[in-house]
Structures are given as structure tokens and as C-alpha cells.
């Protein structure tokens, strides 16, 4: 396959344009915003104005009419410039996609133009304290009360709830309270009575915070339900596969950023007769990290291509593999990059050490390395299940 068939000239132009925006902001901007407890509002607004946030959303609702392939390019390039926007993983990629595919006309008109132009943001909540990786165990329950829904439950590690106008909450209906998950999705406005949040103290230097949420008899109109109450996993995975592809983009961008810093350093730092990058003990792991990031990107492109072509099943396997490959490649690239800088790898000035924690996110979320290996063992290889 020639590289032209993997990425079109338009994709390449998009990469170049987003990279230029990323250069304008860079790592220092994001680090300062995080330090001051703010949010990357200026970058978010600029990315929206240039059509990047809404690039995958339908044109008729203010989007760019592209797909997850384009959206993942945006996130990867911002990450490679040191300023990834984590909320892109949830707001346009999960929530925007689910609403575009399964929302009512009214939901589309209410949310999609705002998600595309950045004036509205939506968070996404599936993880629960007592379910964790086992989503079939989630207990957030929706019961009917006349035309309304009453939602009760708890969520944990939900990103960006404070800045999101609403959170797309995954629950289950009262009739489907046990057994295999038949998920249903509700748009819960940030200030809905009974919807409370407390920030989790994370060891992450990031502008986006994670929250524990309590839904205490939150009353929602029937219009808060997105899609069918019994549409099942298909509807959920319409959002989760883009999330995995976008997490791969996030990880690849971060890995590229760290690697570029390390390569720059290795070319100039000299403690013997040649720069340290001449020593193969340093050069080879950096080269291997580059190869792994490229391979991960290839799988990400395949997953995005399958997803955008409407092959949800094929995209599911590829999105898992891409997330796995990218998470592992990112962790290794960051680790080697920090090491390449010696003591400077741990200084604030060079800013790489905080990526050690950040890079682990892609190994854990939104689905852990082990759960992907489980999925591939059972679904792809047909091996028996131990749990
Ligand atoms: C920074 C950050 C942001 C996040 N943002 C969001 C968000 O916006 N929305 C949201 O819904 N969630 C979010 N999450 C949650 C994330 O998706 C979960 O942390 C993740 O799914 C793992 O769940 P857990 O933390 O409960 O780990 P657990 O499920 O408790 O797993 C702990 C360990 O056990 C392993 N394990 C579990 N089961 C098995 C098994 N069967 N076989 C082998 N190993 C197993 C796991 O791989 C893991 O290593 C976020 C998490 C982080 C760290």
C-alpha cells in the first residue's frame, strides 16, 4: 500500500495545519494553564474556530463532515506539539458521535453545533467504583416516573465534568438491573438537582480534572435519553470505539512529543567525544520507540478507516489493538526519552518527567491493557475465558 492510500493529501494538509496551531501553543502553555488551575480555553476556541473540534461531526449540524480519521489526526498533532486536548476524546469523539448516530433531531440540533464550534462541551461517564473494568456490573439505574426518568448511581474518574455543560451517563434501566449490560445513555446537565461531583486528587499535571459523581434521584425529561433504552451495546460501542481510537491518538502524540525532545537532546549533549546519540545503547531504544509509534499509528489509521466506513465490528477489534499498541508505545517512548536526558529528564525545566505519569493513563483508560488482551484472547483467538 502506498502512503497516499493510507493518508490522503487532505489528511496530510490537516496534519500540517494542526501542527502549526500546536506550535503556537505548545507544552509550556498547557503546563502553565494546569499550574494555574485553569483550562486551555484559548486553544480549545482556536481549534474550534478552525473547524478541528467538529471535523468529524455532520456538516448539516455545523461539523466538517469528516470522520474519526480526521479527528484523530487533530488530537495526535496537538499532542505531538505538547498540547493535547483531552476533552476531544469525550466531547466530539464519544458524545458527538453517539448523538449524531442515535440522537433525536432535537438532540442533534441542541448539541452538535455547540460541540463543533466549541461553545458546548460534554463529558462521558461509564466507570463505577464497584464495577471498574467490568462494565457489565454497573448499577447506575434509570427508572421511569411518568414521562420522566429518575437516575441513581455513582461514577468515578469522570474527566472534565466541571467544564462540561452536561455528562453523557451510561446507566441501565430498572428492568435490566442485573445480568449482561443493556446500557442506556442519558444527557445529564451539569447543574441538574441531585447531580453532585467531587474532585479526585490525581498525580497528574493536567488541566482536566477527574471526578467522583453521585446521582441521587436525578430527575430527567424523557428527551434526556439518547437512542433506544434497549438498543444495547451497539449504541454504546458507537462511542467507545472512537474513544479508543482517540486515546491511541493521544498516546501517539505524547510519545512523539517526548521522543522529539529526547532526539534533540541526544544530538547535542556531549560528555565523551561524540554526542550521546551516537551511542547505540541510547540510539537504538529511541529508534525502536519511533518504530513502535509508527506501527501504532498504522493500526490507529486502520481502526479509524474501518469505523468511518461503517464496519463497527471490524473497527472494534482494530480500535482495541490500536489503543493497546499506542499505550505501550507511548509508555516506552516516554520512559526512554526521560532516560536519555539523564538528570535533566527529571527537571521541571525540561518538563518530561510528568509525562511518566501521564503516559500511564493510556495504558489504563478507557480500557486497560489486560482487558484488551482478554478481548483479543477470547474474541480473536477463541481462547477460553477465565472470568
Ligand atoms: C486520567 C483518567 C481519566 C479517566 N476518564 C474517564 C472518563 O472520562 N469517563 C469514564 O467513564 N472513565 C474514565 N476513566 C476511568 C478508566 O476508564 C478506568 O480507570 C479503567 O477502565 C480501569 O478501571 P479501574 O480503574 O476501576 O480498574 P480495575 O477494573 O479495578 O482494574 C485494576 C487492574 O486490574 C486489572 N484487571 C481487571 N480485570 C481483569 C481481568 N479480568 N483480567 C486481567 N486483569 C484484570 C486491570 O487491567 C487493572 O490493571 C479515567 C481514568 C483515568 C486514570
Automatic annotation (TrEMBL):
Top-level taxon in the UniProt lineage: Bacteria
GO aspect biological process, one term: fatty acid beta-oxidation using acyl-CoA dehydrogenase
Family: Belongs to the acyl-CoA dehydrogenase family.
Full protein name: Acyl-CoA dehydrogenase
Record carries keyword Flavoprotein: yes
A Pfam family per the record: Acyl-CoA_dh_1
Cofactors (names): FAD
Protein's UniProt keywords contain Oxidoreductase: yes
Gene3D superfamilies in the cross-refs: Acyl-CoA dehydrogenase/oxidase, N-terminal domain, Butyryl-CoA Dehydrogenase, subunit A, domain 2, Butyryl-CoA Dehydrogenase, subunit A, domain 3
GO molecular function, one term: acyl-CoA dehydrogenase activity
One cellular component term from this protein's GO annotations in UniProt: cytoplasm
Domain Acyl-CoA dehydrogenase/oxidase C-terminal residues, every copy: 232-377
Domain Acyl-CoA oxidase/dehydrogenase middle: 123-217
SUPFAM superfamilies in the cross-refs: Acyl-CoA dehydrogenase C-terminal domain-like (SSF47203), Acyl-CoA dehydrogenase NM domain-like (SSF56645)
InterPro entries noted in UniProt: Acyl-CoA_dehydrogenase, Acyl-CoA_Oxase/DH_mid-dom, Acyl-CoA_Oxase/DH_mid-dom_sf, AcylCo_DH-like_C, AcylCo_DH/oxidase_C, AcylCoA_DH/ox_N, AcylCoA_DH/ox_N_sf, AcylCoA_DH/oxidase_NM_dom_sf
Acyl-CoA dehydrogenase/oxidase N-terminal domain: residues covered: 8-118
Record keywords, A-Z: FAD, Flavoprotein, Oxidoreductase
